[in-house]
Every structure is written in structure tokens, then in C-alpha cells.
Design brief:
The complex is a heterodimer of chains A (about 625) and B (about 270).
Chain A: E1 3-4, E2 6-10, H1 12-26, E3 33-39, E4 49-53, E5 64-71, H2 74-79, H3 82-99, H4 101-104, E6 112-119, E7 124-134, E8 138-140, E9 145-146, H5 149-162, E10 166-170, E11 173-175, E12 188-193, E13 202-203, H6 205-217, E14 221-227, E15 234-240, E16 251-254, E17 265-268, H7 270-273, H8 275-294, H9 301-304, E18 307-311, H10 315-326, E19 331-336, H11 353-357, H12 362-373, E20 378-383, H13 398-414, E21 417-420, H14 429-438, E22 441-447, E23 451-456, E24 477-478, H15 513-530, E25 540-541, E26 562-566, E27 571-573, H16 588-597, H17 599-607, H18 610-616, H19 618-625
Parallel strand pairs in A: 1-13, 2-4, 5-6, 12-14, 18-19, 18-21, 19-20, 21-22
Antiparallel strand pairs in A: 3-4, 3-5, 6-7, 7-16, 7-17, 8-15, 9-15, 10-11, 10-12, 14-15, 22-23, 23-26, 24-25, 26-27
Helix pairs in contact in A: 3-6, 10-15, 13-14, 13-17, 14-16
Chain B: H1 6-23, E1 29-33, E2 36-47, E3 50-61, E4 66-74, H2 83-87, E5 116-120, E6 127-131, H3 136-142, H4 149-157, H5 193-217, H6 243-258
Antiparallel strand pairs in B: 1-2, 2-3, 3-4, 4-6, 5-6
The chains are: A alpha/beta (about 625), B alpha+beta (about 270).
InterPro entries (chain B): Atg3/Atg10 (IPR007135)
Protein name (chain B): Atg-10
Keywords (chain B): Autophagy, Protein transport, Transport, Ubl conjugation pathway
Chain lengths: ~625, ~270
């Protein structure tokens, strides 16, 4: 005769309770503890008899009783004498049968042994449950019969009221089990609340009950009702080869795992319990909520896979990084050559007093702060000085410029989005040139005292500069390859600005909130560009477009070329500036010269910024307009 | 009745469980923790050839003074389905079906499902999904019909999970009518195989009753009674549904969420 085996289902709340009790209560204690499980006879799905463990399993209230063995090492879990454990448990069951105690406490027939090794560092659980049955040679006398609904319902309602999982049903009358020995006729059935979900096959919990009835009645057959709520109940007429006169010697009960092997099960719940994983999920979910609720087409992996290079780890670098991680960006590299000074921590949101006191490097401080904020982040720090036009290089420093240029080149090549968050104009020149040559997304942020500018540089993909758009009206889309870079509106080469005090140079006297505003806008501009169906080619609208929502070129709306804001007036504008053919940073002549000459071009520019004007052709242009006397100022943006 | 105080919640919950368990095979049980009373249901459901455990819990939220539905789906060892898997259980909570290639297939912002969030269960401390209660008071205020609050509430909020609420849970035949047109919420999310047969009677009863009420109110839309796991609702004509529509809905949703910060996950 076949029986449907037990299948132990463990709630996450059970594991959570094990975690808590192991750490606070049991510690290294390995002795057996009482545990409980519940069954449901209302399941209609599956092919097993479900036994459930939950957070309430240790409260002593559950219907099915067991013992809980939590081992401290995987070795002791593996080496456990499971046969002996099962036999000892079976002995208790047999004792209950022989003494007649089972008729008052039918639960004593079906007990279990839950063995467990819990790796609470990795939140991995290895467990194996056993519900022992004493084997007898049973066979079906007739085919099982399905029970009509009304009869089943009456039995279920008795079960609900009495909470007796096993009882006697005799000619339409329900009797407690204790009446069993005194029943004269054979006209009775034993009703078992049975979580089996397989039609016409009785569940595991029936086996010891059948044995107990056979032993108690000293007969060689028993009629049994497998009572189920989720599907029809079944009648069984069961016979045994010879009446039970002594304890059956064979015991079985160790459960099969999900692979149907008679082996322990393992479950990895690090996602449920490991703090790092919890935070990862929560961070991802926060971004997903935007997708689920507001922007169904949002592609969150475009953020989680985006590698961002932040040149500058000052106020702008810190704030850009904090906004990036909010979008779910996981890879951030900081480049800076400075150390945290005492004036920094109040403005630079990733540094603290202690960092200034110990003279720590800005890039390191920012990266390690990010890791403290979000341990799963891949944050790295590079300590380097970006070669700058006008900052003279002597003979001895040539090799260090070489390596800086090649390092910067490989950093830009290995990242997807480059942020220029530097405090001087000339420091932006080389990264702008390299990003433009490779064709990377590049964002510049610069601050004045009460004004700021955020620019996304034009991107040329595979060296193709698309034609100027057909401009039939003043407003229209401007291709990404037609957009200007940070330098495109300048008509002088960057030189040493220490004397000239550019706008950038004044950033330490910017209104403190400005960095957050501009950094936030830069990251949101990145978000809009990245969510565009083709980020590298995301066009911008030409000019201000505040009408009718036409500016929405991508999923998240507009991706303007520039955002210029004036906190003195609390307003901002989104102008679009086309690329300048003779630009000293992104012009074709300059790109070509860099491709050919590499770091030697950079060294020349460091020593003599004027060559930039010569290469780009800017000098000729300047000569031609000298008569017109255009007054150009860095502050004028 | 838009909201409930704690005492009302406890008594309505108790009454609901009695009414439900008298006729439904999906039993609820009442539990008590330090944080108060909550109801729990644990049933097996079929999901892609797999038998998995569906847990549904009802707790009380004192900020909004309404019940909150928590749920999760576990494999045998307690390993939960992933967020994507959970969301794939129902179109209405499944943005995957709204691929960018076809923006016309955007799910409507059904308030019962647009607010799914993963958070710590207030009684158990483990991660559970829940439907954020910020819109519950407004929805429940619109519900006509007296009787058990939990039954009315669950008839609306439980539908995306396939939770059945038997007619007998509505004492005195005072069925609630839904304030909104849940054009897709009758979609049964789970291909729960044999479960259909057992619950078909109840399911049809409640569907008929609800759609009858919707029709009376003139606000009803055709509700699909086919039980499938992946078919998409055809609630919006693909030709008229544009990206802008989605965004407008999205932003109006956001304005609702903005005044409370609880809709974000902070485990």
C-alpha cells in the first residue's frame, strides 16, 4: 500500500526565529528542543502532505510536535546517527500505542525530528526532517472510494469544533478514539485529518494510526477515512498480512529533498537576511518603484550597469556620487589629487572632520564613505593630477605626464559616463579631449558664487558627425554629435587660470546649496540621457522649449544640452550651443592631433597653451575677428 | 466607512475569519504578537509547474487606520520567489508586460496593485510585499454597502493575488460595490490548476456579483473572467494609448505618494 510522503515547508519567518534564538538564547547549546509544525487539510495543489514550520513553531502551540536539533558544525550535522535518532523516536511512538496513550493524544503517533545546521554568517541552512513510521505489511482490500460531499462536510465540521485530528465514525455517529477498544461491531471507521493532496492515496500521517488501531483492536483489518478539506475525502479498506503482536522492527521516515533524494535540503536565504543583500534589494526596489508606478518603460539595468568616472572628489564629486547611487548606479571611480582640508567636510558630503585631521586623500575618503553608505557599491579611488595646459612640465616630469595621460585614457575608455567636477577650467581640457576622441558621455558641472552650469558634451560616435539638421524653424532637435563641449563657446585656449580667477576657481565661495543643485541636475541630466533609446545619440532641443511638452525627447523627458541657473534670481534656462568647428578640446583638428601625438601633444600644451589655438585653427579665427573686438570673459555664461 | 480604529479592526477581522472559514477552503487564522493581532493564510498554489506556498497576512496600520495586505510566495525551504517572479504573477502588478516596444500596453494604475512595495513585516520582521495603504481610506469610503469591512476591503485588494472572498463573508447580502473600474483586476494572476475547480463556484459568484454592481453604477467595464497567467488586459485601445497618457497617470499617482514617505522601502 502506498502513502503520500511528508513534505516539510519552512517559512522564512521560521528561519528568522531560528536566527534570533540561536544568537540570543541557544548560542552553542545543541540539546534537543521542542518544536511544533502545522498541517493543513485544505490544500488542493501539489502531490505531498505539507508540514509547515513558522515563527510560531517554538511557541508550543502547534498541532504536530517534534524535536529540534540544531548542530553547531556541518560535521556534527553530517555525522549525526540518524538511524538511532529515528529508532528512539519510534520507540516513543510504540510506547504510546502499547500504553493506549495515543487514544487520548493521537498527536503522539506523528512526531518529527528536525535536524539543522545553520550558517548564520552566510544565512545558509542545511536541514533534514524525519517523521518516523513503524512499517507493517499493509495492503488494500478494496479500491479506495471517494466520499460524498455532505458526509465529508459533517466530518470536517466535527474536526473544526473538536480539534481532534483522529476520531471514530460509526454508523453516522462520531465517537472519541477512547471508545475504540469497547466497540463490538466492525462497523466503524477511523477518521484521520489528512494533508495528503493525492487522490485515492492516503497520507503519511495515517500510517502509525493504522498500526495503532490494528494493535489496539487485535484485528487484521481496518477501515479508514482520509479526511481532506481541499478536495474529496477517501475511504480505505486496509488489511494486514498478520495481526500485529509486537513492535515492527523496520522504521522509515527521513524525508526526501527537492531533488527526490534521501538527503538533507539546503536553502540560501542571504537575500532575506544578509544585511548587505537586504540593502541591495531595497536600493534596487526603490528604483524599481519608479518603474512600477510611474515610468513602466524605465530600464533600471541601464543604471546598475553604468560605470561612472568622477573627475574631482570635492563638493561636486561627493554630491554627484550620492545622487548616482540613488539611481542604483553601482560602479563609481573618483579621481582627485587633493587631501581633505578643514574647510571641506561641511560642504563635501562624503568627508568628515577626522579625514581633515588625518590629511586623508579626497578620492579615498569619498570612495570609502560610499562603501560605508552602501557596502555593495564598487567604488574606487585614483590619486592623480590631470595634466593641464599652461602648467609647465619640466624634463623630469615628462614620464609622469605620459603615464597620467595613458591612465586617464584607460579610465575614460573603461567607464560609460564621465563627470568633469574639477575646480579649474584647464583641468577639464584633457578629459574633454579624450572623452570626445573616444566618444563617451561627458558632463561638466561648474559653479560660480550664485550661478552654475551643467553641460553635456556633444558625442561623436565612430567619428561620424551628423549633418546639421534641417533647420526649418528656430526650434528643433539638435543631434548629439552637433552639441558643443565645455570649451566650445570659448575663443581662447585654457591657460593657467590661477592668476585670472575663472568662475571655477571661485567654487569655494559658491553659495553652499549650489553644489547640491548643480550636482543633482547633472545626475538627472545623465538619467534622462541614459534612458533615451540611444543614449550616445540623444538629441537636445534647440533653444528654450517650455511649451506643450515637446521637449520630451526621451523616456524621462527632456535632455537639454545645458542648464544654466542663477540662484540670485532663482531661475534657470536650458540653452543649446552647437559644437565649434575650431574648438580647442573637441574640434576635429585637435582630436586628430591627439590621436597622432598622444601625450607629446599634452606636454606641448602644458608648456605652451598657444599651440592649442594653432592646431585648432582658432588663432586664424581670432586674427580675423580682432577688428571686431569681441569682449570675452570666463564669467560671462 | 473609510477607516477603522484598532478595536473595530480587531472585531471586524475576527468576524471576517469566522464568516470566511465557515465556507471557504482558504482558511484564515488569527495570530497575536507584541505588535497586535494579525490574520494569516498559508495555501499552496501552482506556479509554472511548481507548487509554491502563498502567504497572505492582514495587519493593521495605525497611521492610515486601515488594514494592510502583506504577501509572499515561498518555495519549499523558505526561499521566496524573486521580485520579478512575484510581479509576473499578475499583469496589474507586472510592468514587464509593458515593454517599451509597445507602450500601448501600459497597465492602468489600479490603486490596488500600483502600490506594491517590499518591506519588513510589522509582526514577523521578515521581508514581505505589501500594498501600500495610502489610498485605502479613499477607496473604502467610496465602497457602498455595510457589513464586514475586511470582507469588502479584501474583495478589492485581494483580487490581484487571487484571494477569494466567499459571498457568505458579506452578512445580510450587503455586497460592496467598487468605486473604480478595475478593468483588469478580475484577472486571476495564478494558473492555479486544480484550484480552479474547487473555487470556481465561489469565484464566479463574486465576479458576477461585483460586475453586476459595476454595471448598475454605470462605471463598470467588461471584466475578463478567463483565468490565465499571462494574458494581458485589453483595457486600452492601443491606438489611443500613448506614452503621454502613462506619464500623466504616473505623475498624478506621484502626487498622492509624495505627502507620505512610507512608500519607499527602508528595511
Amino acid at each position: 500500500m502506498q502513502f503520500v510522503p511528508i513534505c516539510t515547508f519552512v517559512d522564512a519567518s521560521f528561519w528568522s526565529e531560528v536566527n534570533r534564538r540561536k544568537l540570543n538564547e541557544w548560542k552553542l547549546e545543541e540539546s534537543s528542543k521542542p518544536v511544533g509544525a502545522s498541517i493543513s487539510i485544505y490544500d488542493s495543489i501539489g502531490t505531498d502532505s505539507r508540514l509547515s514550520l513558522s515563527n510560531e513553531s517554538f511557541l508550543g502551540t502547534a498541532a504536530v510536535k517534534g524535536q529540534f536539533l540544531l548542530l553547531n558544525t556541518v560535521e556534527s550535522f553530517t555525522k549525526l546517527d540518524r538511524k538511532e535518532l529515528m529508532n528512539a523516536e519510534a520507540e516513543g511512538i510504540w510506547e504510546s500505542i502499547v500504553s493506549g496513550r495515543w487514544m487520548d493524544h493521537p498527536a503522539s503517533l506523528n512526531t518529527f525530528i528536525f535536524t539543522l545546521f545553520a550558517d548564520l554568517k552566510k544565512f545558509r541552512y542545511h536541514y533534514w526532517n524525519c517523521m518516523p513510521v513503524l512499517l507493517t505489511d499493509l495492503s488494500l482490500i478494496d479500491q479506495p472510494v471517494e466520499i460524498v460531499d455532505e458526509e465529508s462536510r459533517a466530518l470536517l465540521s466535527h474536526l473544526d469544533q473538536s480539534q481532534q485530528s483522529v476520531f471514530v465514525y460509526c454508523n453516522g455517529v462520531i465517537l472519541p478514539l477512547t471508545h475504540l477498544p469497547s466497540l463490538q461491531s466492525d462497523d466503524y471507521e477511523i477518521v484521520v485529518a489528512d494533508p495528503s493532496t493525492t487522490p485515492s492515496v492516503a497520507g503519511w500521517l495515517c500510517r502509525n494510526v493504522i498500526l495503532a488501531v490494528l494493535w489496539t483492536t487485535k484485528r487484521n483489518k481496518v477501515r479508514l477515512i482520509s479526511l481532506r478539506g481541499g478536495q474529496p475525502s477517501w475511504r480505505f479498506n486496509i488489511g494486514v498480512s498478520s495481526p500485529v503482536s509486537s513492535r515492527p522492527s523496520k522504521v522509515v521516515g527521513w524525508e526526501r529533498n527537492e531533488k527526490n533524494e534521501q538527503k538533507p535540503s539546503s536553502v540560501d536565504l542571504s537575500k532575506q537576511f544578509h544585511p548587505h543583500k537586504l540593502m541591495e534589494q531595497a536600493v534596487d526596489l526603490n528604483v524599481s518603484l519608479i518603474k512600477w508606478r510611474l515610468v513602466p518603460q524605465l530600464e533600471t539595468t541601464k543604471f546598475s550597469q553604468l560605470k561612472c568616472l568622477l573627475l574631482g572628489a570635492g563638493t561636486l564629486g561627493c554630491n554627484v556620487a550620492r545622487s548616482l547611487i540613488g539611481w542604483g548606479v553601482r560602479t563609481i571611480t573618483f579621481v582627485d589629487n587633493g587631501i581633505v582640508s578643514y574647510s571641506n567636510p561641511v560642504r563635501q558630503s562624503l568627508s568628515e572632520f577626522d579625514d581633515a585631521q588625518n590629511g586623508r586623500k579626497k578620492a579615498d575618503v569619498a570612495a570609502s564613505a560610499l562603501r560605508r553608505i552602501f557596502p555593495s557599491i564598487d567604488a574606487n579611488a585614483i590619486d592623480m593630477t590631470i595634466p593641464m595646459p599652461g602648467h609647465t612640465v619640466d624634463e623630469n616630469a615628462v614620464s609622469s605626464i605620459d603615464s597620467s595621460v595613458s591612465l586617464l585614457h584607460s579610465l575614460i575608455a573603461s567607464h560609460d559616463a564621465i563627470f568633469l567636477l574639477l575646480d579649474s577650467r584647464e583641468a577639464r581640457w584633457l578629459p574633454t579631449l579624450i572623452a570626445s576622441t573616444i566618444g563617451k558621455l561627458c558632463f561638466s558641472v561648474a559653479l560660480g558664487f550664485d550661478n552654475y552650469v551643467v553641460i553635456r558634451h556633444g558625442v561623436t560616435v565612430d567619428g561620424v558627425i551628423e549633418k546639421k539638421e534641417d533647420v526649418t524653424s528656430l526650434r528643433g532637435l539638435v543631434n548629439a554629435s552637433q552639441l558643443g563641449c565645455y570649451f566650445c563657446s570659448d575663443v581662447t585656449a585654457p591657460g593657467n587660470s590661477m592668476a585670472e580667477r575663472t568662475l571655477d576657481q571661485q567654487c569655494t565661495v559658491a553659495r553652499p546649496g549650489l553644489s547640491q543643485i548643480a550636482s543633482g541636475l547633472a545626475v538627472e541630466l545623465l538619467a534622462s540621457v541614459v534612458q533615451h533609446s540611444d543614449p550616445l545619440r540623444a538629441p537636445a532641443w534647440n533653444g528654450e522649449s517650455i511649451h506643450t511638452g515637446e521637449e520630451e525627447t526621451g523616456l524621462l523627458g527632456a535632455a537639454p544640452h545645458q542648464i544654466r541657473g542663477y540662484v540670485s534670481r532663482f531661475n534657470s534656462m536650458t540653452p543649446c550651443v552647437r559644437r565649434f568647428e575650431k574648438c580647442i578640446a573637441c574640434g576635429p583638428a585637435m582630436r586628430e592631433a591627439f590621436r597622432e601625438r598622444g601625450s607629446s601633444l599634452v606636454i606641448s600644451a602644458c608648456n605652451s597653451p598657444r599651440i592649442l589655438e594653432e592646431i585648432s585653427g582658432l588663432d586664424l579665427l581670432q586674427a580675423s575677428v580682432d577688428d571686431i573686438q569681441i569682449d570675452v570673459s570666463d564669467d560671462d555664461f | 466607512m473609510g477607516t477603522l480604529n484598532l478595536a473595530e479592526f480587531n472585531s471586524h477581522l475576527d468576524q471576517f475569519i469566522t464568516l470566511n472559514n465557515g465556507s471557504s477552503r482558504e482558511k484564515w487564522t488569527l495570530h497575536k504578537s507584541d505588535a497586535g493581532l494579525y490574520a494569516k493564510q498559508s495555501v499552496m498554489v501552482k506556479w509554472k509547474e511548481e507548487s509554491i506556498n502563498r502567504q497572505a497576512h492582514i495587519t493593521y496600520n495605525s497611521t492610515y487606520q486601515v488594514p494592510v495586505l502583506w504577501f509572499n510566495f515561498y518555495r519549499r525551504g523558505g526561499d521566496p520567489l524573486s521580485s520579478d517572479e512575484v510581479l509576473s504573477l499578475s499583469c496589474t502588478i507586472n510592468p514587464q508586460s509593458t515593454l517599451s516596444s509597445n507602450p500601448s500596453r501600459s497597465c492602468p494604475s489600479d490603486p490596488s496593485t500600483s502600490s506594491v512595495t517590499l518591506n519588513e513585516h510589522p509582526h514577523l520582521g521578515v521581508l514581505f510585499y505589501h500594498l501600500h495603504p495610502c489610498q485605502t481610506p479613499a477607496i473604502m469610503r467610496e465602497m457602498t454597502g455595510k457589513g464586514n469591512y475586511i470582507a469588502s476591503w479584501l474583495s478589492f485588494y485581494g483580487r490581484p493575488l487571487g484571494l477569494s472572498v466567499p459571498l457568505s463573508s458579506f452578512p445580510g447580502s450587503s455586497l460592496p460595490s467598487l468605486p473604480l473600474s478595475p478593468s483588469t483586476s478580475s484577472e486571476q494572476p495564478l494558473d492555479d490548476g486544480a484550484n480552479h475547480e474547487n473555487h470556481m463556484e465561489e469565484a464566479i459568484d463574486i465576479e458576477d456579483a461585483l460586475s453586476a454592481m459595476e454595471d448598475e453604477s454605470g462605471r463598470g467595464q467588461t471584466s475578463s473572467s478567463t483565468l490565465t497567467d499571462s494574458s494581458l488586459p485589453s483595457s486600452h485601445s492601443p491606438t489611443t494609448r500613448s506614452l503621454d497618457d502613462t506619464r500623466t497617470e504616473g505623475f498624478s499617482q506621484r502626487s498622492i505618494h509624495e505627502d507620505r514617505n512610507e512608500n519607499t522601502v527602508q528595511p
